[in-house]
Amino acid sequence: MSRKSAILAAATDLFAEKGFNETCTAEIAARAGVAQGTLFYHFKSKEGMLLEVFADVMGAYLHGQEQALQGAGDGRAALEEMLRFHFRFLQDNSRHLLVLIRDFPCHLLREDGPRRSQVREQLLAMIALLRTCLERGAHDGSLRVKDAHTTALLLRGLLSGLTRQQLLSPLDVPDLGEEAVAFCLEALRPDGLPAPLAP
């Protein structure tokens, strides 16, 4: 493992254990077995380490979603595999995701924040992959989709909410991956009937 990788691994572990704000760079350097100068040689700041974790996690997630989309036949099969991948990824990367969801600095998302565009591009890429999958399903008749973009936003919200619930809820929340997959596929089943409108 390279020094940079060791620093990132140590930072992620400490952020997960103590929280981003409560972790100091001296602790990260000690856990990684490097001098603080080495830490700042690879990263300008503690925030820079968190942004690197974000980039790595998002890169791996998007790559997995792209593979799921390309490897499946029709839109329904692609959606099923993309949803299943999400929950596998959550299980395999729970510490990283906990850090990002719980500790990602809000100021990075401000309109005038220098990193807002980087974060926004990654989030838009997730929506675009879902939209592509839904458009495929609508075209091949395997999914019932009225508006692919809106449906992609709804699916992303469901996945984000379940991820937050599983990682942060004070309740004992079970793994709901299979139930979520079944729910989404049933909701978009082409022969499904729309729910009746409220009076």
UniProtKB/TrEMBL annotation:
Residues 24-43 bind DNA. Residues 1-61 form the HTH tetR-type domain. It comes from the Bacteria. Keywords: DNA-binding. The keyword NAD does not apply. Gene3D superfamilies: Homeodomain-like, Tetracycline Repressor, domain 2. This is TetR/AcrR family transcriptional regulator.
